[in-house]
TrEMBL record:
Protein's UniProt name: Nucleotidyl transferase
Domain (Nucleotidyl transferase) ranges: 2-116
Keyword set includes Transferase: yes
InterPro entries: GlmU-like, MurU, NTP_transferase_dom, Nucleotide-diphossugar_trans
CDD domains: NTP_transferase_like_1 (cd06422)
Length: 219
């Protein structure tokens, strides 16, 4: 199975840190955020990676290269300076991802999720990893009933930014800038999305304060 890391976000909430450095390259200890993900994916057996980029994307390619030193092979999917959002970025990269289901991970998270767990693909168009709602996002995104993901109908959990998608999820899409969330909600309404509730370590690094807290925790 191939994996894609979404690294094209502008990181507006992280400014001024992201004025001259793309968010995936922000340092935590001796590594940058995206390097933690690459090493975790490699350890789980994901060796064919696709990484999209937009804002200061050349820095990402210069830092990661072809991926050889991490034990992976990296292909890049460059976007315009404004980016294509999550859905548009994945859609553009589909020729690189192939016709089988693939894993997608946001580059601005830190987690100990065991990625090898998702190599057994359930039926449907998507499989989402949901986590407990953080304090800054109490409303959550989806409800989980057994393994079935629902938009409504119970206490909601937060989408972690980790999911497995079948290319057919994007069948009705066309090249443009669009988010992923509406596609997931539409598929969930058709009972085509399953998932799990992960209760291990997961941090969304969306602000300088959260980055600082993660640095303290890992030190």
């Amino acid at each position: 199975m191939k994996a894609m890391i979404l690294a094209a976000g502008r990181g507006e909430r992280m400014r001024p840190l992201t004025d001259f450095t793309p968010k995936p390259l922000l340092q935590v200890g001796f590594k940058c955020l995206i390097e933690y993900l690459i090493e975790s994916l490699a350890k789980a057996g994901f060796t064919d990676l696709v990484i999209n980029h937009a804002h200061l994307g050349s820095q990402i390619e210069e830092r990661l290269g072809d991926g050889k030193r991490y034990g992976v092979q990296i292909c890049y999917s460059p976007e315009s300076s404004n980016g294509l959002e999550t859905g548009g970025g994945i859609f553009q990269a589909l020729p690189l991802l192939g016709k089988e289901p693939f894993l997608v991970v946001n580059s601005d998270i830190w987690t100990d999720y065991p990625f090898a767990r998702v190599r057994l693909i359930p039926e449907g168009l998507a499989y989402l990893i949901l986590v407990n709602n953080p304090d800054y996002y109490p409303q959550g995104d989806f409800t989980l009933l057994g393994k079935q993901v629902r938009v409504e109908g119970g206490d909601k959990l937060t989408f972690s930014g980790i999911g497995v998608y079948h290319p057919d999820l994007f069948t009705c899409c066309c090249p443009s800038r669009f988010p992923l969330a509406p596609l997931l909600r539409g598929a969930a309404d058709q009972n085509l999305v399953t998932g799990e509730h992960y209760q291990g370590q997961w941090y969304d690094i969306g602000t300088p304060a959260r980055l600082f807290n993660l640095r303290k925790r890992l030190s």
